Batch of 2 targets.
Target 1
Amino acid sequence: MTQPRKIVAAVDLSEFSVGIVRYSGWLALQIDAELVVVNVINQRDLDMVHRVMIGYESFSFPDYLEDQEKTRAAQVDDLIAANCPEGVNCRTLIRTGIPYRELLATVETEKAQLMVVGTKGRGNLADALVGSQARKLYRRSPIPLLTIPAAFNVLP
């Protein structure tokens, strides 16, 4: 029995995420694969919020994190609804941690055969040609890694 095909697509909810979902959705349709669209809440950002809000009694970090997870899940669901072809089995996954590590862990737990990422994400100034998270993935990915250029906005 063959294992079902699965594609993991990493999105950071920047303007570049549309092209990633469009292409990975199109590809999933072509090869009859499940598409898992993953967004990672960066631990660095959470640590900063936690440090800044220490001392504010009305602030609840667990509530903040839960709100972030719900908001991002809704944003990813909207991104999928607007850009993924009908007929593709899509699933949203929100993770928390260091992005490249969480993406590699997702590849392992989901038993994916392909990962789709953008060459560029939220950090528009630093790492202008290829994002730092993408570079780390290139060196460490145990499966093929398909990169979508920042300017990509059409299907083949």
Target 2
Amino acid sequence: MILDTLAQWRTYSALSPRFEKAFAFLHQVTDQATVGRHEIAGDDVFAFVQKHATKPVAERLYESHRKYIDVQYVLRGREVMYWAPLPLLTNVTMPFDAEKDAALYGLIPQGVAVQVTAGQFTVFFPEDGHIPSCAWGDPAEVLKVVVKVRV
């Protein structure tokens, strides 16, 4: 799991040959971007622009992915994302679904709260359980981009 600002993206470019395309997209996206899927490099790299209200963590579940790395970039607003190493997530609420590239898990007390503000991004790898879109204080609207980068 990584938390950093967009200005520091080159630090992580060696982790995946596809990161350069993902971060190039994040550099050009604005808060006027159309909500929905944006094509970057076919099924290897694509993005979802999302506008949503954050929710209390008690209403959320951990998720994990196998085929894609998540790069989650907050354009406007702020949210808390929780992180936990996958081996700690033993309460499976939805077994891995290959079509959705996702598994879901119940909450655990060992989860780490990560506060993410506008201009910051997180990177969640397949071994990282994560809960995005959690309220930081009261629920609030967030505009963010989730770039899916094939492993």
